[in-house]
Structure formats: C-alpha cells, structure tokens
Amino acid sequence: MLLDFFPSRQLTIYLAKMFAVRIIAVLAMLVMVLLMLDLLSRTGDILAVPGNGQDDLLTYASLRAPQLVQRFLPYSVLLATIITLAGLNQNSEVTAMKAAGLSAHQILAPLLLTALIVSAFTFVFNERVVTRATATLKAWQDVEYGQVPDDPGTRFNVYFNDGNDVLMARTLSGTGEDTVLTGVTFYERDDSDMIARQVTGSRATFAAPGWLVEDAEVFTVATTRTQMAEEPLLVAPGTTLDQVGLRRVDPDAETLGELADSIDALKAAGRRTAELEGRWWHKISGPLSAVLMPLLGAVAGFGLARSGNLFIRAVLGMALGFAYFVVENAALAMGSFGGYPPLLAAWAPFFLFFLVGETVLIRTEE
C-alpha cells in the first residue's frame, strides 16, 4: 500500500478539488489586488495621451493581468498548500488519514498531481498568452501609450555603432534594404571620443552602405553653427545589415522557439548570451516550481495541532517557499553575470529545494 500513491479514488478527488479551489481563490485575490494597485499608478500616464479613455484602461488591464498570473501562480500554489494542509490538520483529517495507513507522501500525492497539472497549464499559458501580451504591452509602453504602429516588427529606440560614431533612431521598421529609420540622430565623434558633429533628421533609408538622412540638420561643435543640408546626407557608412538585424531581446516576450533562434543569432554575431540561455532554461524550470510548493508547504500539515505549533509550522512552510524564490532569482542573476552556467543557474534551486522539502517532510513525519 505504501507504494500506491493513490490508494483511494474518492480521497484523491476530495483533496485535489479542495486544493484546486484554493489555488484559484488565492490567485484571483492576488491578481485583483495587484492589478488595481498597478492601475492606480498607470492611469495618469494612459489618460494623459489625447484620445485615450476607459477602453484603453481595460486594454492595459487585459495585457497586464497575464503577467501577474504568470508571476504569482507559484505563490498561489504555496499559499493554497498551507491553507489546505493547515485546515486538514486543524480538523484532525490528517490524523484520520494517517490512522487509516496513509503515509505523508500518499496524503500529498493528490496535491502534487494537481500542482503538476498547474505547471503544465503555466507553461502553455506563458507560451501562448503571456509572451504575446508582454510584446504588445512593451510596444505600447515604448510609444508612451500612444498609437502603436501597424507593423508588428517595428522597433523603438534603436542605436548602432560605427566605430566611435553612434546612430540612434526613435523607430525602425521594414527589413533588409527596405529598412527605414525615423527620428534619426547621428553623433560623429573624434579620436578623443568627443562629439564633433551632430546630424538630426526626420527619416533615414539604408544606402548600402550607410544611411541617407532626409531633412538633415547639421550642428558643428567647433563652430557652434547649425545648417540644413540641401540634399540627403550619408552617415554611418560602416553600418551593415547584420547590425540592423540584431536587436535587444526580451525573453519574456518570446516563446521557447523564438528565444532559441534569437540566442543562435546573437551567438553567430559574437554576442554574450549567458543571461538569455539561463532565461531559456527558466522557461521550463519556472513553471515546475509549482510542483515544489506542496512539498515545501507540507510542514504545515503534519505534527499535532493541539501542540500550539500549527501557526509556527505554517510560517515555516511559507518561509521555505519564499526562500526558494529568493534563491532562484539569485541563481539567475549569478548566471547572467557568468558566475554559474545557464543550465545550473536555472535548475540548481529546483533540485536543491526538492531535497530540502523531502528532508523536512521525512523528519517532520517520522
């Protein structure tokens, strides 16, 4: 019987249903409260744009809510674990199940199964919903909640290096030789890295090589004079299409496959990708954190409730769960700086706290 983790079908359904209801309730409470607080801080910026109204506030809420669900679903599983097991312990249901011959792992099995389903849902939800919502919200925030360009490939606030010189643009649209920059500023620097000339223009097109700036206004630092160019002015002749193709990657806005392609492109260009590789692995290990929560919070469900230590056990379970998230974020940060390999940074906290949870559970029960 000890090797049968689901000895009772009715008990499995009872525990899994109780646990799932509490996860949903805690998650709804957290998301609603945090979304309202976020809206209070963003409403002024959104409504400051002419033409924006209540519909835009609802749009922001619909784009922000998936991000909050992604971030706080593991916390919801942890809190639901503590609430469920503390209630079962308080009502002596854990004692009754153990008297019937069930081990701690058999009691936790329905919760772990539910958490595994939550992890699978989280992964699919992140890939199909959160990435798209994040990309859309980021594009909207880049234009300060104004009109988002129709071209989904439009990039904002881009810059390219041409030796010591720097070319900046407010937006970049199009691909290949049809690439167009708007809101262009070019800084030409001398050998001492001081700006010698500044060129601004409303629009620039790729000239293979360089960029042709239209309506160019040239400011010369040495003479402090500004003059308009009579024809399109060629700048940044050392810029290549490979530089244009590279972009700043937001791992939260890309799916697993898209992020893998971005990492390969950056590697081919000689860029450092340790942080992105760690985030790629975290897209798999992150959702699985929900499976750890019943194990880390299980300390609240075992031990005598009449001993007066139930509250202390609940706090200990919560502390173990939050410690996992602290260590996980620290490991990812160390991985981004090259302190840990990306694979180790993403997976080490998971296996470490799995062993910690198992140790605490066995010592608490036995």
TrEMBL record:
Annotated keywords: Cell membrane, Membrane, Transmembrane, Transmembrane helix
Membrane topology category: Multi-pass membrane protein
Gene Ontology biological-process annotations: lipopolysaccharide transport; transmembrane transport
Primary location class: membrane
InterPro entries: LptG, LptG/LptF_permease
Localization terms from the record: Cell membrane
Nucleotide-binding as UniProt keyword: no
Transmembrane segment boundaries: 12-37, 72-88, 108-125, 310-327, 339-362
Pfam family, one: LptF_LptG
Identification of the protein by name: LPS export ABC transporter permease LptG
Organism of provenance: Alteraurantiacibacter aquimixticola
Top-level taxonomy: Bacteria, Pseudomonadati, Pseudomonadota, Alphaproteobacteria, Sphingomonadales
Gene: lptG
